[in-house]
């Protein structure tokens, strides 16, 4: 079998020849351990994603009392109980401000994601999901950005001028992934459409302008122009991918279109949209439409609200008095717990998909994080962070580490190394680090 | 006659009555030489760098309409624009293009190409009728490129570009066995090219000012066209650029007046005010449906349109004083809006001119739903957000971000009986030193609008307590929203802010310190023109500074080298 390759199927077949891919083939493509495609020698792909929730946590209800592998999940982590062995809890890691003004709900989030704290939305380096997608995002979509709280924002940036916008509607997300241009990986026949080839050559021809234009613009604009050509190249590659028969995927069926839903920040609507989009995202990951995602459950200044309430999660963090008996803000805690329930539901969607001898989640590395620790004071010290999924065996999970004030960039560095990026050092000034979290790496 | 007064008193075209009004005004001024209001001369041009500006969604759409016709559909999801220095127009000079955006541009281009080349439509768009068959029609292919290429790229195509697109038509036709498919992909190629999606400004030496450069004619045409018409240069303007007409003062005036008289001028005004009023935020606006059941997407759309209609009517149709938009007592209203304003509206569909409030207490666009609902929380009003927005949007006064570590616990929840209205709740801010600095400049302005809830409906009470809507703005104190309107109208920063924003909108960058004399010049002419916005736009579009480019600042090494060489005479 070893000489069967995906390209081999396709040789000389561009002008519309049909190619049959028999379903029984699937079994022989998987080796005995279920870990690799025996025929291609390719392992099951490893995926990376971030899952972000806003306004931090209630420390005493989230941070386990014990460190190491023997820890009891505090109340707010109870919804993640089924995943205790598959996650690493990272508490007490700090964004080091180095005198940079702390823009509430922004500086902490970007500090964690770029290794450089910034006083506004002007990131000084790409966010780590973009760095990782450059390494592994060799798929139809470089990455998919999704937000369940009705806002188009994401915290995925290649550059300050080009944030990657989030999809906010499950239905739109469905059409983007499974609508025009989607090829069923398990279709019995594959007919490459020559239009994609012409299309790719058109985009490639435009790429020839690059050198001339780069000479004509200033240094700052060169970077932006370069972004344009990078984005153009990605579309071109996408067209090229359409000419290859997709690799068959076990247990995959095209999902049905989700219903039209109400898109706003009312918490139950958000939960519903989040479930629908988590499921679509999981399917997209399963059939190799993307390997990278960013799911924004709630904005960092969380806009979630309960029906009829004049306050949002965010305004509550500032305005709700601390309950003298409980010792924390009761309503804020409700939203903080709800966020973890949603996180659990997201993981449910990933683990519902069997893959190899485990589930899709086993082949993912999900970095779940917030933007601050205690939202009331916008503290960027001890931002709650979790790593879930074993990244196809590349990371170890099932423990709690207390960061003890170490720079949070250690997490970003470790995650990038786990995803195969050749980097030794990440972050600047107080955030610069070459210390990976060794407990995490296998 | 100086340059300036020739510009101002030009009788060229005089297409609209406000141009005439301007002529009369300045004729009057000239006749009275002892008048203290002497004509101001434009200070020496300062200029800025050449820019790379991404076209906005509305510019994309209007460009397609200008080039192909308004019937051509643009189907794509445009991402949220980037805002910088208070304007999306300035953000276009900083915005990159994400893969998502490129994906959508590609989809939009295919949609346009499919429409234009559909069998039932192609005859109206093709400059030639190709013979039936699957082979390439070289002559027709050339004609197609020559017709749409320069319009899309806003300048003639280079030989290399022309050959490239001809090559695409050729290979597309060969591979797909259909000439129209070849045309389709050439069009998709041009519509996804950087020359279409980005406005790439180019500069040339300025013979009159050895230490400055200026935009080349085609870049001038684009700057003029997007500023005055919010669309790509039309054929006449491109011809004016080609013939050098734009380099000639009379020629420039002629084109400026033509653009000002164009129906597209209204779109430019709309684009500017949508940008200034931050209306793109409506896309993310959510209101609690239990607290504000009247809010829906129809209200959101009508609210924006209401404000824009009032602005267009005042500034363009009536050629009125800009400052009057803050004190308009009448407005256009739909039934959906009438529910919130509690104003009966007769027509079932469409608009009716009605008083903004029955007793005349509510006046000006800052008391519109579009302002009050946008700058509020989902479930309640916010004097702070409104105060900040008023300062930011209309007075160009920026309020710093709040300090991160503030003890907000003093601000209790809205149901706290001890603090029934926002005024009491916010008083904590004004006593806390860390907060007071900024809240003292925001809250008193916004508190005057507290008689309007988070959606913009009038209310006398909050939590059963009578609302106290007194406030003050930069030395002017008032009793209510009516007083705030008058304060905004007479505030000296009001016209100044508009001038600055309009200029930044046109040039796509922030103003620089060296341009303050130029700003003073614009402001004094704006005042002399009785604060008429079309007149101000004409003054900006015909000023030397509008096209001036600084030598080599922010430019790459290659450029510096090439240009220095030229200056040394080696090249020439």
If you had to describe this structure to a student in words, what would you say it looks like?
The complex is a heterodimer of chains A (442) and B (572). Chain A is α/β, with parallel strands linked by helices. Chain A has 2 domains: 1-43, no CATH class; 44-185 and 243-431, Alkaline Phosphatase, subunit A (3-Layer(aba) Sandwich), CATH 3.40.720. Chain A has helices spanning 6-10, 25-29, 59-62, 107-114, 128-136, 170-178, 194-207, 210-216, 219-241, 267-286, 313-319, 330-351, 409-418, and strands spanning 19-20, 47-52, 87-91, 144-147, 189-190, 292-296, 354-355, 358-359, 364-369, 385-388, 399-402. In chain A, the strands form 3 sheets. In chain A, strands 4-6-2-9-10-3-11 form a 7-stranded mixed sheet, with helices on both faces. Chain A has a two-stranded antiparallel ribbon with strand order 1-5. Chain A has a two-stranded antiparallel ribbon with strand order 7-8. The longest helix of chain A has 23 residues, at 219-241. Chain A is globular, with a radius of gyration of 22 Å. The relative contact order of chain A is 0.22. By secondary structure, chain B is mostly helical. Among the domains of chain B are: 52-198, no CATH class; 272-490, no CATH class. Helix content of chain B is 50%, strand content 6%. In chain B, the strands form 5 sheets. In chain B, strands 3-4-11 form a 3-stranded antiparallel sheet. In chain B, strand 9 and strand 10 form a beta hairpin. The longest helix of chain B is centred in the middle third of the chain and has 21 residues, at 297-317. The relative contact order of chain B is 0.11. The model of chain B is unreliable at 1-36 and 553-572 (pLDDT under 50).
């Amino acid at each position: 079998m070893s000489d069967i390759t995906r390209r081999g199927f396709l040789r000389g077949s561009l002008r519309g020849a049909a190619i049959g891919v028999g379903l029984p083939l699937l079994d022989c493509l998987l080796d005995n351990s279920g870990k690799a495609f025996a025929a291609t020698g390719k392992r099951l792909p490893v995926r990376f994603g971030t899952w972000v929730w806003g306004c931090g946590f209630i420390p005493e209800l989230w941070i386990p009392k014990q460190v190491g592998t023997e820890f009891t999940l505090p109340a707010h982590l109870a919804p993640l109980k089924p995943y205790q062995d598959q996650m690493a809890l990272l508490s007490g890691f700090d964004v080091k401000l180095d005198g940079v003004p702390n823009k509430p709900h922004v500086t902490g989030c970007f500090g964690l994601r770029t290794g450089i704290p910034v006083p506004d939305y002007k990131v000084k380096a790409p966010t780590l999901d973009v760095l990782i997608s450059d390494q592994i995002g060799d798929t139809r979509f470089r990455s998919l950005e999704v937000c369940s709280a009705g806002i188009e924002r994401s915290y995925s940036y290649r550059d300050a001028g080009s944030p990657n916008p989030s999809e906010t509607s499950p239905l739109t997300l469905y059409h983007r992934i499974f609508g025009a241009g989607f090829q069923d990986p398990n279709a019995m026949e594959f007919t490459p459409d020559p239009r994609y080839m012409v299309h790719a050559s058109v985009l490639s021809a435009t790429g020839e302008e690059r050198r001339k234009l780069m000479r004509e613009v200033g240094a700052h604009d060169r970077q932006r122009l370069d972004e344009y050509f990078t984005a153009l190249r990605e579309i071109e590659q996408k067209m090229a991918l359409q000419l290859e028969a997709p690799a068959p995927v076990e247990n995959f069926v095209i999902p049905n279109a989700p219903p039209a839903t109400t898109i706003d920040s009312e918490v139950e609507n958000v939960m519903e949209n989040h479930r629908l989009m988590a499921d679509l995202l999981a399917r997209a990951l399963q059939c190799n439409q993307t390997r990278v995602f960013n799911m924004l459950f709630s904005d960092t200044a969380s806009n979630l609200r309960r029906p009829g309430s004049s306050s949002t999660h965010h305004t509550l963090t500032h305005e709700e008095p601390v309950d003298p008996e409980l010792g924390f803000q009761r309503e804020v805690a409700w939203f903080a717990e709800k966020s973890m329930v949603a996180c659990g539901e997201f993981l449910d969607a990933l683990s519902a998909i069997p893959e190899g001898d485990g589930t899709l989640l086993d082949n993912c590395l999900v970095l779940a994080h917030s933007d601050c620790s205690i939202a009331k004071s916008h503290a960027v010290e001890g931002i709650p962070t979790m790593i879930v999924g074993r990244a196809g065996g590349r990371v170890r999970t099932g423990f709690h580490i207390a960061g003890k004030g170490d720079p949070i960039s250690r997490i970003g560095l470790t995650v990038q190394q786990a995803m195969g990026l050749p980097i030794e050092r990440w972050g600047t000034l107080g955030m610069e680090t070459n210390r990976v979290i060794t407990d995490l790496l296998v | 006659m100086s340059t300036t007064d020739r510009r101002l008193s030009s009788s060229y075209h005089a297409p609209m009555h406000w141009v005439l009004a301007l002529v009369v005004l300045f004729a009057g001024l000239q006749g009275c030489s002892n008048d203290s209001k002497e004509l101001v001369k434009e200070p020496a041009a300062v200029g800025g760098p050449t820019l790379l500006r991404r076209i906005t969604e509305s510019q994309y759409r209007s460009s397609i309409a200008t080039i192909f016709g308004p019937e051509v559909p643009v189907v794509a999801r445009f991402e949220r624009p980037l805002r910088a220095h208070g304007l999306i127009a300035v953000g276009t000079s900083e915005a990159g293009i994400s893969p998502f955006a490129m994906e959508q541009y590609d989809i939009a281009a295919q949609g346009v190409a499919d429409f234009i080349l559909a069998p039932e439509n192609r005859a109206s768009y093709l400059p030639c009728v190709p013979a039936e068959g699957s082979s390439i029609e070289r002559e027709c292919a050339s004609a197609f490129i020559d017709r749409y290429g320069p319009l899309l790229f806003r300048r003639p195509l280079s030989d290399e570009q022309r050959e490239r697109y001809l090559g695409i038509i050729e290979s597309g036709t060969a591979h797909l066995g259909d000439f129209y498919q070849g045309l389709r992909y050439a069009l998709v190629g041009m519509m996804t090219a950087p020359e279409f999606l980005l406005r790439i400004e180019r500069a040339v030496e300025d013979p009159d000012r050895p230490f400055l450069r200026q935009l080349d004619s085609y870049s001038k045409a684009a700057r003029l066209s997007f500023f005055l018409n919010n669309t790509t240069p039309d054929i006449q303007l491109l011809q004016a650029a080609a013939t050098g007409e734009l380099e000639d003062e009379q020629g420039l005036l002629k084109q400026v007046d033509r653009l000002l008289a164009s129906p597209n001028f209204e779109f430019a005004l709309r684009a500017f005010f949508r940008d200034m009023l931050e209306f793109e935020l409506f896309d993310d606006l959510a209101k609690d449906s239990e607290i504000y059941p009247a809010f829906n997407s129809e209200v959101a759309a009508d609210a924006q349109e209401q404000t824009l209609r009032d602005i267009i009517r005042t500034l363009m149709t009536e050629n009125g004083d800009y400052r009057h938009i803050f004190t308009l007592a009448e407005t256009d209203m739909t039934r959906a809006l009438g529910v919130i304003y509690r104003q009966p509206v007769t027509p079932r569909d469409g608009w009716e001119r009605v008083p903004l409030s029955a007793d005349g207490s509510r006046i000006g666009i800052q008391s519109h739903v579009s302002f009050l609902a946008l700058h509020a929380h989902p479930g309640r009003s916010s004097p702070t957000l409104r105060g900040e927005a008023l300062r930011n949007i209309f007075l160009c006064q920026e309020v710093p971000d709040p300090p991160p570590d503030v003890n907000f616990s003093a601000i209790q929840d809205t149901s706290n009986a001890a603090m029934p209205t926002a005024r009491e709740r916010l008083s904590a801010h004004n006593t806390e030193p860390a907060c007071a600095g900024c809240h003292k400049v925001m809250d008193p302005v916004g508190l005057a609008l507290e008689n309007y809830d988070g959606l913009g409906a009038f209310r006398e009470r909050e939590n059963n307590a009578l609302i106290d809507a007194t406030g003050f703005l930069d030395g002017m104190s008032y009793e209510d929203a009516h007083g705030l309107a008058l304060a905004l109208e007479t505030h000296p920063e009001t016209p100044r802010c508009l001038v600055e924003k309009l200029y930044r909108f046109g040039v796509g960058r922030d103003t620089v310190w060296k341009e303050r004399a130029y700003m003073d010049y614009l402001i004094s002419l704006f005042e002399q023109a009785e604060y008429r916005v079309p007149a101000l736009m004409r003054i900006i579009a015909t000023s030397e500074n509008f096209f001036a480019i600084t030598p080599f600042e922010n430019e790459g090494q290659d450029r510096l080298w090439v240009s220095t060489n030229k200056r040394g005479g080696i090249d020439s």
